Structure formats: C-alpha cells, structure tokens
Amino acid sequence: MSSPKAQGDGLGDGDRDDPSGDLRSVLVTSVLNLEPLDADLFRGRHYWVPTTQRLFGGQIVGQALVAAAKSVTEDVHVHSLHCYFVRAGDPKVPVLYQVERTRTGASFSVRSVKAVQHGKAIFICQASFQQMQPSPLQHQFSMPVVPPPEELLDHQALIDQYLRDPNLQDKYRVGLNRIAAREVPIEIKLVNPPTLNQLQTLEPKQMFWVRAQGYIGEGDIKMHCCVAAYISDYAFLGTALLPHQFKYKVVLEGWCMGGCGVEMGSLL
C-alpha cells in the first residue's frame, strides 16, 4: 500500500473523487460509513443481515475500528486489535459506538470502543495505534506457493460447480442457492475448494485470495485496515470446524460468525 493521503483520513467518505473510474466499494459508502452523533460517538447501520437474522460479527468489528480510527491522528495506524462479543446483536436497530481515548502518546495511542444496543454493550474492543516509523527489525512469513487469483473459480462459478453435481443432496442445494442470492461486499477465491468426498477429512486450514468489491482507495491505509477487520470474520470459525464436519453443532448467541455466506465447506 502506498503512503496515506494528506487530505484527512477518508474513513467513510464515499463522495470523494475516484481516480480509478471504478464504482466505490459498498464497504466504503455504506458498511463502514458511520454517522457521527457527538464527540467520539457514532451510529452504524446494517448493510447485510444473514438469513439467520443475526448480526454479522465482521461488520461490528470493522465499524468499531472505523470509530476508533476517527479519534487518532493521520500518522498513526492500528497494529493490534482485541475484540469480545458480549451480548446478542439485534439486526432490527442500529448500533451505537462509543469511543474512549484511553491514552494518546507520542508514538502509541490506545482506544477502547463499546458497541451498544438497547442501552447495553453487545461488543467491546481495544485498539492500539502506532506512529509509522522505520525499523531495522522486520520479519514476515514467506508467501505460500499458490495459483494466482486469475486461475481460480470465483464465488458464483464455484457454487455453480457444486450445483451441477448430481449427487448433491437437496438440503445443500437449497443452501447453496441462498448463498448465491446474497450480495456480499467482498470477493473470495478459494485455493483448494472442498469437494463432496473430502468434507469429513479436511484439516483446519484454508487459503484464499480476497479483495473488496469495488474501489476503496490505494492510499487510505486506515480504511484498508478496517476492511481487513471486516473480512477477518468470514472464514474464522468455519476453518476451525473443518475437521469436525457433521459431528458438532455450534451456536453463537445472537451473532453470525465464521463465514455466513461464503464458507462452502461449512455449508456442505
């Protein structure tokens, strides 16, 4: 990613000019676009409610990080985020985000965010922001050898491939058609999509390419981090459950997490 732009943080600014000519991502214009109500107080609405009629956890994480990021200066960026879902979310009402400026230092700043519905906290998180500065200590995992995204099936093509299988049970066919009808704001391409005869022996790991649908801004690092926070919940629980297909039923009180709408393996 390139360096941040100088003209403000750009978070939730869906009206600024788009130099690429592409449509602005709905993640910027709607999902992560919070309404300011007062100092460090914001309101978020729901772009997409899963068929379970529960709030999507990734939306709450992303919106909370947007609220936190609006309370820090342009030259600091999030490097640590700890989240807790504490009560059921209600998809029928908006979510209020209250930001507490826990500490503002020279290099590091800490923000606490509480997401509230019906006067009670449904989600809390702490985010630590760090000033961007060069460091002699750098390390990262090596990029695994995987096919480029251009060689992989997209979301719709993968669903179509499953639906063409004559051995697919009707209950799974209904679920796949429901997934195909949803408009999710990200694009995911699985590197090794599960097949029907693999579903009971998968290891708890997945690799996939992912990107936002539409343009979110090359230099807007804060928004990129908020989009990553939103995306992080799509495959979290579903991946952990891959070795336990058909053995356990996991119920998350009031939340839809771990791939509501994109976890083919979890559905099948």
Helix-strand blueprint:
Blueprint: H1 26-31, E1 35-38, E2 41-44, E3 55-56, H2 57-69, E4 76-85, E5 95-104, E6 108-117, E7 120-131, H3 155-163, H4 170-181, E8 186-190, E9 208-212, H5 221-231, H6 236-240, E10 255-256, H7 264-267
Question: Can you describe this structure?
Answer:
- A hairpin with a 2-residue loop joins strand 1 (35-38) and strand 2 (41-44).
- A six-stranded antiparallel beta sheet has the order 1-2-5-6-7-4, covered by helices on one side. The protein has a two-stranded parallel sheet with strand order 3-10. It has a two-stranded antiparallel sheet with strand order 8-9.
- The protein has helices at residues 26-31, 57-69, 155-163, 170-181, 221-231, 236-240, 264-267; strands at 35-38, 41-44, 55-56, 76-85, 95-104, 108-117, 120-131, 186-190, 208-212, 255-256.
- It is globular and about 60 Å long.
- The chain has seven helices and ten strands.
- Mean pLDDT is 80; it is low at 1-8, 13-22 and 257-268.
- It is of the alpha+beta class and 268 residues long.
- Helix 2 runs antiparallel to helix 5 and helix 3 packs antiparallel against helix 4.
Number of helices: 7
Helix content: 10-25%
Based on DSSP secondary structure assignment, what is the total number of beta strands?
A: 10
The percentage of residues in β strands lies in 15-25%
Q: What strand order characterises the main sheet?
A: 1-2-5-6-7-4
Categorize the overall geometry: globular
> What string gives the helices and strands in order?
HEEEHEEEEHHEEHHEH
Distance between the termini: 36 Å
The class by helix and strand makeup works out as alpha+beta
